[in-house]
Design goal:
mainly beta, Immunoglobulin-like, 9 strands, about 0% helix, disordered N terminus
């Protein structure tokens, strides 16, 4: 009796293997601000070719065509994600959807988006006027700023 060896053939299609969202400064995702989302696609027998789409709560963000790659490798697609509303956002990536490359879908990545208050500008400024040792008269200065504290210097008369 002849022995028959069976080998599993490598997958003909590429699969979505990861979705990574840029970590925001301050740790909070803010509505109406843009973040990078990187989708990693493993390379199948035919290479990592075909459309890769990013969805936010089921709504298409964008689609990119990923091409090339060697068997056993990976390719990435980087998307700009700008959440327009607050609340939880479920980000899912899909790849494929053709006869030779069936659709592969990532696990959802859920990020909470809040309304953020823009940071207040800090720093110092100079009026260009120096009154040390002299008297300044007939000069005016309009400053559109709110001063919340003075950390150095004094205002003696």
């Amino acid at each position: 009796m002849a022995a028959i060896a069976a080998f599993a053939a490598p997958a003909a299609n590429a699969d979505v293997t990861g979705v990574t969202v840029q970590t925001p400064n301050g740790g909070n995702y803010c509505a109406n601000q843009s973040y990078s989302v990187t989708v990693t696609v493993s390379t199948g027998l035919l290479g990592a070719t075909g459309p890769v789409s990013l969805l936010d709560n089921g709504n298409l963000v964008s689609t990119q065509n990923v091409t090339g790659g060697l068997l056993g490798g990976s390719q990435t697609a980087v998307f700009a994600w700008t959440p327009s509303s607050t609340g939880n956002h479920s980000l899912v990536a899909t790849q494929g959807g053709t006869l030779l490359s069936p659709t592969s879908t990532s696990q959802p990545v859920v990020e909470a988006v809040t309304t953020c208050i823009p940071p207040v500008a800090t720093g110092s400024f100079s009026t260009g006027l120096n009154g040390t040792g002299s008297t300044i008269t007939n000069n005016s200065l309009n400053i559109g700023a709110i001063i919340t504290s003075i950390t150095s210097g004094s205002a003696a008369r």
